[in-house]
Amino acid sequence: MSRRFILLTGCSGGGKSTLLQSLSAKGFATVEEPGRRIVADEIAKGGTALPWLDMGAFARRAVEMAQSDLQRATEHEGLVFFDRGIFDAAVALEHSGGPSIRETLGAARAYAGRVFVVPPWEEIFGQDAERRHHFNAAVQEYHRITDALDALGYDGRVLPRVSVRDRVEMVLQGCTGRSARSP
């Protein structure tokens, strides 16, 4: 496990990507969500590893991409923030009938024990070409993720529904124990 690798997870459409962008703007290393990158690539090439067509293929590809992301992240100094990652991909893979989360993740933890979780937030949830599921499906996904965090002993810190600036401050305080305005 790398204590430098910080996972942002939780409800789809809950503000993770916006939070990640703000952390990046402060100079922190960040890794974008594998799912969004896969969907964009599959749509561009007319592929079928899409969550609404073949969830199993999509989740397997997300696991592979997240593993590559983790390897590349070792090249960065300091904190590295992940929008979703191998944990979320393992939850999706199990849900699609694949191996258990524990089988996919193995014994070692990829991320710090403290994980930041965005809750369902219907007012900011939106669908687009890459997020076609409805809010209720996002809430179900959130429960699968939080249940898995609990089962695997992660310290899931649910972020309140507050401004992005306040969320950034909470995440940085939660990672470093102090207010951090820059890396």
Automatic annotation (TrEMBL):
Transmembrane segments: none annotated. Residues 6-167 form the NadR/Ttd14 AAA domain. InterPro entries: NadR/Ttd14_AAA_dom, P-loop_NTPase. It comes from the Bacteria. Pfam families: AAA_28 (PF13521). This is ATPase-like protein.
